[in-house]
Amino acid sequence: MTLRAPRPLSAEWFVPAQEEDAASPTRFKVRGLKGIDYQAILGSARIIDEERIVFDAKATAEMLKKGLLDWDNYLDHEGTPLEFDQLNAKANIDRLGVSIVTAIARRIVELTELTSDERKNLSSQSKSPTVPLTAEPVPGDDTAQPKTVRLSSSGKSRG
After folding, report:
1. What's the pLDDT band for 103 if we cut at 50, 70, 90?
2. Less Cβ crowding at N or C end of the chain, within 10 Å?
3. pLDDT tens digits, residue range 24-36?
4. Residue 42, by phi and psi: left (phi above 0), alpha (psi -120 to 50) or beta?
């Protein structure tokens, strides 16, 4: 089987819901995140359940820095077109309103996460066994056996 780049690396133009009926809508070029970038962002997220994750401002900003690539027809408060600054992600993020930040972040997450069909295919094709992550005993620790470390979905150890 030939390996393919993950879908998150593909970019798309996203039109926010409030712009869908506009003759010339504002569009944002976004892509999903690389796995390692998403894992880092999940570290500061609050996972409510399998369907709901709450990202703090720092995680959302990081998500936008990596996933927002450009915009088209985005105007300032006076109606002047704003140029997307390819070299200054923070300046771009600072120009976005709350509802747009939320909509763009949500789309980036949708592009990053696997669909339910992709999850099923991945789990049915996996041939490698699950191996517990272990850590060697720390010098001075009185336990003779390596400790099994379970990772939470955020990547932090849970004992």
Report:
1. very high
2. N
3. 999 999 999 988 8
4. alpha
**Region label for 48, one of left (φ > 0), alpha (ψ between -120 and 50) or beta (otherwise):** alpha
Query: Which CATH number among 1.10.260, 2.20.200, 3.90.930, 3.30.2220 corresponds to the domain 7-120?
Result: 3.30.2220
Structure tokens at 16: 């926010």
Q: Distance between CA atoms of 148 and 134, rounded to whole angstroms?
A: 5
What is the model's pTM?
0.67
Which amino acid belongs to residue 96? L
Residue whose entry in the numeric block shows the structure tokens 């932090």: 156
- For the record, the structure tokens of 13 come out as 């133009």
Sorted by where each begins, the domain ranges of the chain are 7-120
Q: What is the pLDDT of residue 7?
A: 59
C-alpha closest to that of 151 among 43, 2, 7: 43
